[in-house]
C-alpha cells in the first residue's frame, strides 16, 4: 500500500461527530472554539469597531464570555483527570491551585500594564480624560487603596474583569472535582440551586474602594463552569447528550433561531416591567440570567461536531489550526488580546475613524496574538 493510503490508528478520523470524541480530537475542537472566543473577545473589547457588528454576540443573547467559561469548565476534566498519573487529593489541590496562582499573577501584570498604557496615552496626547477610562480614575486619584483593591480583586478595570472571575472559578475547582469524584450526580443540582438562589436574592460580590458589584458574578457564573465540566464526563449526563445529540442539535437550532429573532428585532425584556424576581426574565450578563444560559446551551448543541465536519475541507484545516493555536495558549493570548484591545481603543481615539483604521487595528492585533501563542509554544518546546 502507498504511504498516502496508510493511516496510523491515532490518525484515524473518529466516527462520532459530537463534542465527545477521543481526547486528541476533542482537545483540538476545544482549542478551536476557545481560539474563536478569544478573537471575538478581542474585537468586542474595541467598542464601535466595524468588525464588532459581525461577532456572534450580535446574533443571540449570549456572547464569547459564556463560551469561554463553558470551555474552561470542559477543559477542567482533562486538567484534573490524568491517565498518566494518579492525582490524589493533595496532588489535585496543588495542580489546580498552582494554575489559579498563575492566572492571578497574569491578571495583576495585565492590569498594571493596562494602567501604564492609559497613563502613557494621557501624557502623549496631553488628554487627562483618558485617565478616566474604564474605571481607572480611582487608581490615579487614590493609588493606596486601589493597589489593595487590585491585589484583592475587589477593584477591577472595565474590560479587564474576566480574569478575576476565572481566578475564583479555578480556586474552587478542586472542590468541584472532589464533589464530582464522591457524588457525581449531585454536583450539577447543587450548582443550579446556588445559581437559582443567587438570581432570587440578587447575591453578588462587592467591589472596593469603589462601591459596586462584580460585573461577572462568580456565584452565578459558576453554573456555566460546572456545566462544561459535567458535560465533559464520559458517563452520566455527558453520555446522555452524546447518545441523543441528533435531537439535541435540532433543539439547539431552534434556540439559536429564537435568539437570532430576539436580537434582530430587539425583543429584550424590560427589567422595569418584568415579573419579580426580574433576573429570571431578563438577559442580565452579570448574573448569567436563564435566557443567556439557555442560548449558550443551544449554541453548543447546534455547533458541536461542526469542527470535525469542517476539518474535512483543506482550506478549513489552516483556519482550524490557527484558532487551535490561539486556544492552546489561551491565558497568554487573552492577556495580550486585552492589552491590544485597549491599544486599539486608544488608536481609534487618536486616529481618524475609518474602515481602514479598524481593519488595520484588528489585523495587527490578531497577528500579535498569533505571535504570542507561537512564542509560548516555542518556549515550551525549548
Labels describing this entry:
disordered N terminus, mainly alpha, 382 residues, 1% strand, two-stranded antiparallel ribbon, 15 helices
How would you characterize this protein structure?
Strands 1-2 form a two-stranded antiparallel sheet. It has one domain. Helix 1 (23-44) crosses helix 13. The two termini are 37 Å apart. Helix content is 65%, strand content 1%. It is mostly helical. 39% of the residues are buried. It is globular and about 60 Å long.
**Overall form:** globular
Helix content: 55-70%
Low-confidence stretches: 1-23
- Biggest β-sheet: strands ordered side by side in the sheet: 1-2
Rounded mean pLDDT score? 89
Domains counted in the coordinates: how many? 1
**Class by alpha and beta content:** mainly alpha
Which helices and strands occur, and which strands form pairs?
Elements: H1 23-44, H2 64-80, H3 89-124, H4 137-141, H5 143-151, H6 162-182, H7 187-201, E1 206-207, E2 212-213, H8 218-231, H9 237-243, H10 245-264, H11 290-303, H12 306-310, H13 314-328, H14 330-350, H15 355-381
Antiparallel strand pairs: 1-2
